[in-house]
Automatic annotation (TrEMBL):
PROSITE patterns according to UniProt: SBP_BACTERIAL_3
Molecular-function annotations in GO: ligand-gated monoatomic ion channel activity
Origin superkingdom: Bacteria
A Pfam family matched in the record: SBP_bac_3
Name of the protein in question: Solute-binding protein family 3/N-terminal domain-containing protein
Signal peptide location: 1-29
Length: 253
């Protein structure tokens, strides 16, 4: 047998073996599905545009789920029934600004936080009277009569002018008919980002941070995977990028 024929047979044998090996390799596994519930009218966190979910919580959840090896199937829910649906296994997780609290930790697996918010004092841009919460004593705050924000205003010595809608509160503030608005920092950042011509600023942050994360049924096996993925996406800047898109800054810490 000639050396050329031997080489040809050897090459054919190698190709056959390689072909057999390739044929035997399994196809890449498709991502597993995870059903996640969110409200459909809670901007900028979770809302629908047509049939598609949008919002900060939505984008964070999809990025984290993908990193953890899951494809998200979204399910719309009202807040009042969202935990009941989780318990009843109608969905596997909640991504809807779930505040991390001791009572919830006793009932559910809660992830590490992906948002952090605090109380804020909002003033006109040219008002320099407030740099800390104690400075609001004697000022007039616009707010709902029975909200926690109104309670905080009274606690620190401000008078509350009852104004139930946001548009009217900001109108009174810019017209100098009230001095301050107290609200949540994420809400304030969203307003300022989407109303760039508004003559308002965040003058002071106060209170303990409120942290929000994903909720899962106890011992469902998801939380460790989501925590690992979330930490990786915080490290590589993905979570910050989503925060900047919706709020103008990183709101995960």
């Amino acid at each position: 047998m000639s050396k050329f024929l031997k080489a040809g047979i050897a090459s054919a044998t190698i190709l056959a073996l390689l072909g057999g090996t390739a044929a035997a390799l399994p196809a890449q596994a498709a991502p597993k599905e995870i059903k996640i519930a969110a409200e459909s009218a809670y901007p900028p966190f979770a809302y629908k545009v047509g049939s598609k979910f949008r919002g900060y919580d939505i984008e964070v959840a999809e990025a984290v789920a993908k990193k953890a090896g899951y494809k998200v199937k979204w399910v719309a829910s009202q807040w009042d029934g969202i935990f009941a649906g989780l318990k009843a296994k109608r969905w596997d997780a909640i991504a809807n600004q779930v505040t991390i609290r001791a009572d919830r930790k006793a009932l559910y697996d809660l992830s590490l936080p992906y948002t952090s918010s605090r109380y804020v004092v909002i003033t006109r841009k040219d008002d320099t009277r407030v740099t800390k919460i104690e400075d609001i004593k004697g000022l007039i705050a616009a707010g709902s009569a029975t909200s926690s924000f109104a309670d905080e205003a009274r606690k620190y010595g401000a008078t509350v002018e009852v104004v139930e809608d946001n548009a009217s509160r900001f109108a009174l503030l810019t017209q100098k008919k009230v001095d301050i608005i107290i609200n949540d920092s994420l809400w304030a950042l969203d307003y300022i980002k989407n109303n760039r011509d508004a003559n308002v600023k965040i003058a002071a942050y106060f209170g303990e941070p409120s942290l929000q994360g994903f909720a899962f049924r106890k011992n469902s096996g998801y939380v460790a995977k989501f925590n690992k993925a979330l930490l990786a996406l915080k490290k590589d800047g993905t979570i910050k990028k989503i925060g900047v898109k919706y709020f103008g800054k990183d709101v995960s810490k």
